[in-house]
Amino acid sequence: xxxxxxxxxxxxxxxxxxxxxxxxxxxxxxxxxxxxxxxxxxxxxxxxxxxxxxxxxxxxxxxxxxxxxxxxxxxxxxx
Length: 79
Hints:
By secondary structure, the chain is mostly helical.
């Protein structure tokens, strides 16, 4: 039995994911700047970016898991 494998990642979905993650990073960076306990603007920007990058990576993983689960549920509904 040959199954037709559908691609989970397409160029369009990759661009959408990059835009979403970049927007999420920018939002978190702006929020986290007020939580860095420093008076040095460079350190504030650095540590806000470090925190935002970790959280953005988790957001990216959540996007990928959502995409896989959604495709599996849609495929199961078609059978």
